[in-house]
């Protein structure tokens, strides 16, 4: 058996170490619990010997008997209490450590560049960060509580027996080893059968999933009976495999129980002989039988755990690989970005998600501090990519981008992103409190400030309708919000951050006029004293802009002041204005 | 992002479906395979006996060494008996498995069959109440619960039997000690009953907390760009830590409660044992209670504690089954509630039934099809002045004609086809086939009368042959003809194993166009009277589409007639959605839809002369629609 303990330890050690105290306590509890399990039958022995008067050393008074009985109950209760505490503390250590690992992995992934996120679905990351880590947690409790605990229990029982009579100890030890070896080799024979059963079950699940997704095709092809036949055939296969697999499972189980019976027979014969030769008392005979049955449990458990433990290999490998991935975005050196409204320069910038297919080609333009630029172009013309470069979600393959005169690779990423804000069409809302949604989980922002922004954005009416104020939880995807309210919330987030440049991807869906006006007013207020790049979907919006840039196929088609372009009869912008074809803007 | 568990709980509470009580479903499953169930019960009783006997024999062992031996027992006969009982136990377990495996598989297959049967009866395009994945899980876990509980009834009978025998034997040995030792278990029983609802409550809270954590992971990775741009990484992770910590607390509470409960059960045994010790001390000194008796009492107490634990488990599980039955019933919307447990063969003897496709009768032949005032509005889309769907559409098809439905994206073309052939339940309208009203279009518009190819058809993980035939009895040359008609013949050359090539989600990856043509071949091989195609052009190039129309409409030239004995000059009557010129030019009749309503109909030349919408569609797609296409691709 090859358990990747080193890799496992690498993943968890940093998170278990802070809990060293609890861990030590857990160890003490476990050892005590095991000790009690081994000691308690000794009381039973004492009791039996006293009651039957077979030991001269004890006086067999009824008081002594009652004391022994009470001691038995007391120790049993104590053992239960310790057992419960041990489980609780063990679980707590496991949860705390794995939660810390979850947070570590989540942070690690979140810090990776966008190419990582584009390659992976959120579902896949859930599987890694929650599913796989939960496996580690199971392994922790199984390894520590069950395997190690059971090995110690076994050792304890064997030592107690050896102290009683060394011959018995040796015989039991041999029995335990033989039983473990036999059970482990027998367990192997059932594995291929249970694998075949799992495969057959998976076949049926896959069959059903495909059919449930294709009901329309089945119905209109008149193939209902054919599908039913498929169900019968796959179920019949399961029947065959299940019979075999369960039968093999039975063989494993029976081997275990037969071994235990053999152990019991061994114990009664040994007990009988030793008793007859006067070497042991009745109580000790009782003890011998009790211990052999106590030994049965760890043997069974250890056999069961081996398979579970082996599964951990794939999990640790996946997580270790995830941890190894590094971000391709290089952190800046810490240059300062000036305050106030910021300028933005693109100087011959070329960029492609795949280097062979540039989506932006030799882009050059300048946005002066406080200037508002309207960005137009069809879907796929490169508008969104251009915006992403400003935030260094990607880096250009060629050319330079400067923000407030500073090359964007110079400042720290955080410093850069704090000075630029992006408002996208689809507002990302979380299943969290209104406060967290507005501050984007930044708890350094005071409630007064949040309320002030709500006021400024004319969201007060909505706010007062909330049952718990800022603590009200938003539903998944913001279902309880209208599209307009969601837009306003997105704007509120930007207000709370006070950036020097705002990139605004205007909402393309139409809202009711009243809401639209509210949003217009909010944008007016937002852009005061800031530079802005507005990805426009409507000609109306462009009226706000000082300058216009039109992109086509990743190139600047035309750029200039709005008024100049509008009055030049041969400009694309003027043509757009005259035809009013808004579709071209999208 | 998928629904969180908390939401699912809520949804499940709101949408209560009428369903059979759980006990009735369980009873029905026992009645479905009574023999297997009774064999299982017999094996369980035997198992209980062979479980009990070793305790009684071990008592004799102690009696021997303490000098209280009964007649006939020696250490060797005891050893032999212990071994014999083990063999008896082995035999009982064998009987148990021989009966419970078939009981599981037979009853689960019946339940799955009934579920699938009714799911396939509901209008095909009407979405399942939940995702296919969620529905599949009901075919697994929820179905499994039912036979499991039916068999647990045998376990509980075995344990009760054990309890009765044990108490009787204990009473015969010492009445006082028996009564006093059993008392803790009466308390344990009460605690178990009181605790079951709490167990569920804690478990649900624990699942909900897990759902919130998982949901949040999905949310912030789904919004990774927004998080980065807002430099909210730290805040998000801090929030994530808090959610994790909440979950830890809830999970620990759940676990602690369970542990304490279990410990109470176990302490019942310890307390009982302690009581026996206290009371037995004097009796043992007086030699009225032997060491053997003591052994037997402790042994029985252990068994009785299982009874208490298992009863608690059973009660909790029974509530769970109610939920499972409800979840299954919800998949079968519209079916009578007894449909879930309807008896029918499950063919677990390995003799499977033949798949029979109805042969075409003269009544099946299409002469005319009239559709009057057909309407379907998607649920919840009726708003002031607007709706989503179709409204008041009439159309008339004659044998051997090609009718083309055309219109812009979202004009209701697909909805019209689906509503007509019953994949969507119509709100209003009449469908008349050869002069007779069709009451249930979903059952009626199937082969050999009608076949349909969806815009995005699905193939199943199977050989190409099985995908085409789906159990039909056709020769390879007939299949080749259908492939020819669907212009799939050239693609066949790329498939290494020809008709035996595995296709579908787990097989060879076919292109969208190939899948569509395979689905068309699936339709042709059924030789239906009426062919319904939904927009083949979205996956076919112009050349291929023209070839297809030539072959389908002028099929007389490829000589399939003689082999299949059809006499009409044009084999098929076609109703298709298309905006390709190839189809429009050949159409005998064109229906132009806009916003779910017919704005014009007729032949192409007259429509081009009179209908603005037709001109627009014919002379190229507008830039807007092109945009839409690029976005979708």
Could you explain the architecture of this structure?
The complex is a heterodimer of chains A (586) and B (633). With 586 residues, chain A is of the alpha/beta class. Chain A folds into 3 domains: 1-164, no CATH class; 166-279; 344-585, 3-Layer(aba) Sandwich (Rossmann fold), CATH 3.40.50. Chain A is 64% helix and 10% strand. Chain A contains 20 helices and 10 strands. Chain A has a 6-stranded mixed sheet, sandwiched between helices. In chain A, helix 17 links the parallel strand 7 (501-505) and strand 8. Chain A is elongated. The two termini of chain A are 60 Å apart. The model of chain A is unreliable at 580-586 (pLDDT under 50). Chain B has 633 residues and is an alpha/beta fold. Chain B has helices at 5-14, 22-32, 34-65, 75-121, 132-173, 175-222, 224-229, 233-285, 291-331, 413-420, 441-444, 464-469, 476-485, 489-492, 512-524, 542-553, 560-564, 581-586, 604-610, 612-618, 623-632, and strands spanning 368-377, 389-398, 402-407, 428-433, 436-437, 450-453, 462-463, 502-503, 530-534, 573-577, 589-594, 597-602. In chain B, the strands form 3 sheets. Chain B has a 6-stranded mixed sheet, with helices on both faces. A 4-stranded antiparallel sheet of chain B has the order 2-1-4-5, with helices on one face. Chain B has a two-stranded antiparallel ribbon with strand order 7-8. Chain B folds into 2 domains: 19-341, ABC transporter type 1, transmembrane domain (ABC transporter transmembrane region fold, Up-down Bundle), CATH 1.20.1560; 362-449 and 586-632, P-loop containing nucleotide triphosphate hydrolases (Rossmann fold). Chain B is built from 21 helices and 12 strands. The longest helix of chain B has 53 residues, at 233-285. In chain B, helix 4 (75-121) packs antiparallel against helix 5 (132-173) and helix 8 (233-285) packs antiparallel against helix 9. Mean pLDDT of chain B is 83; it is low at 1-15, 556-568 and 620-633. At the A-B interface, helix 2, helix 3, helix 5, helix 6 and helix 7 of A face helix 3, helix 4, helix 5, helix 6 and helix 7 of B.
